[in-house]
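Progress note, sequence design subtask.
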C-alpha cells in the first residue's frame, strides 16, 4: 500500500526550517496569503503529527484535502 497524497493549505508562508518538517512535500502555490503543500502521508499518525506541528507553531490551518487515495497513481 502506498501513501495517500494530500494538499494542506495554511495561512502565511513557511520558513525553510519549518518547511523541512514536511519532507516529501512541495509548495504548489502561494496566493492570497495562503500556502499549499502537496505530498504523501503514509498514515494517520503522520497526518496528526503534521497538524499538531502546525498548531504548536500557531500556524492557521485552512484545509486538508485528499488528492489521491492510497495506492492510486
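Output:
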Amino acid at each position: 500500500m502506498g501513501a495517500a497524497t494530500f494538499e494542506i493549505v495554511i495561512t502565511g508562508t513557511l520558513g525553510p526550517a519549518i518547511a523541512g518538517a514536511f519532507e516529501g512535500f512541495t509548495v504548489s502555490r502561494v496566493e492570497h496569503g495562503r500556502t499549499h503543500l502537496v505530498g504523501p502521508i503514509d498514515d494517520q499518525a503522520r497526518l496528526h503529527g503534521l497538524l499538531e506541528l502546525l498548531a504548536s507553531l500557531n500556524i492557521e490551518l485552512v484545509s486538508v484535502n485528499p488528492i489521491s487515495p492510497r495506492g492510486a497513481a
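Strands lie at 4-11, 26-31, 34-41, 61-68. Work on this subtask will continue into the next period as scheduled.
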